[in-house]
Specification:
binds 2-phosphoglycolic acid, 5-stranded mixed β-sheet, 39% helix
Length: 299
């Protein structure tokens, strides 16, 4: 049995997660020599190197990777235990780790705002990333809950749809197609198009539709953010397909939704978690809150 203290494991987990002794020292509010000596003692107990340093970069060895996974399991279990104890005492407190798709960033922070007002002792970590990055975090079991439009079929998940997320064609108001009452899908081929980056769920949905109807658009620009795409449309660089929700936040009086046949692409946001994962008290509380809040909402 390895002789390691919880503190050593915490120091190791932080260093591995941040990839740096200095950053770990900052996060844990201890000195860098303390971090180094704790990792050294742990390495001695394990009997194999946990890190290797190449240049300035710190890498986990195979033993380090295995220990990192175990540490994450241990700390998640301890967090869950604390949440249960808080729940027995009648309060909800602990950590909520959420990863949401870029389009949901226009909507989830508001829901989180009300949630945190009711549960001020819940700390939330929110990642806003694309479809491919969420999938990677799922594979690494990094979060409690995930919000996305197309939960990947190859991962064993429990998913629940909760609100519509239609994809629409957006143009600047003075675009030639903006005058047309009904735009034929094939007409999109004659105007510069702005596409989301590869790995994006929006891009995949758009490409599926275009492939289905044999449409080839002139991609003038690829951009990795919905906001940047809106700015590019405003700058006259082309038209694009975005979630309708991206239009609700700021004043977009110079943008319009084109009435293109086969659009909107109908989609839903799903809230998902790994099927084998025991949801924490806090994650369950958020899940119920979200479903309750969005039940009667319209897009
Ligand atoms: P994306 O996903 O950010 O990967 O394009 C958006 C969505 O699927 O709603």
């Amino acid at each position: 049995m390895i002789q390691a203290t919880l503190h050593q494991l915490k120091v190791f987990e932080t260093t591995a997660r941040l990839g740096s002794f200095t950053k770990a020292a900052e996060e844990l509010d201890i000195t860098q020599p303390t971090v180094s000596s704790q990792v050294k003692q742990l390495t001695k107990s394990v009997g194999l190197p946990l890190f290797e340093q190449i240049g300035k970069q710190l890498y986990l060895t195979e033993a380090g990777k295995a220990l990192f996974t175990s540490c994450q399991d241990v700390f998640t279990e301890l967090d869950n235990f604390e949440m249960k104890i808080a729940d027995f005492k009648g309060t909800k407190e602990g950590k909520l780790r959420l990863s949401v798709i870029t389009t949901a960033a226009y909507f989830i922070p508001r829901i989180l705002g009300s949630f945190c007002q009711i549960y001020p002792d819940i700390d939330v970590t929110l990642q806003v990333i694309n479809h491919q990055q969420i999938q990677q975090r799922m594979l690494n079991n990094q979060d409690d809950l995930y919000i996305m439009s197309q939960p990947p079929e190859e991962i064993d998940l429990k998913s629940k749809p909760f609100i519509e997320n239609p994809l629409v064609v957006i143009a600047r108001k003075d675009h030639p197609l903006a005058k047309e009452k009904q735009v034929l899908l094939e007409k999109l081929q004659f105007y510069p198009f702005i596409m989301r980056e590869s790995g994006s769920g929006t891009r995949k949905a758009v490409q599926n539709l275009f492939n289905q109807y044999d449409i080839t658009v002139k991609v003038r620009l690829e951009l990795g953010s919905n906001e940047a795409i809106k700015q590019a449309i405003l700058g006259g660089l082309g038209i694009s397909v975005l979630s309708k929700h991206t239009l609700t936040s700021a004043c977009h009086e110079d943008l319009t939704i084109l009435n293109v046949e086969k659009f909107p692409i109908s989609r839903y946001w799903y809230i998902s978690h790994l099927a084998g994962k025991q949801l924490s008290v806090v994650a369950k509380t958020f899940l119920d809150f979200l479903i309750d809040r969005t039940l009667l909402m319209e897009v």
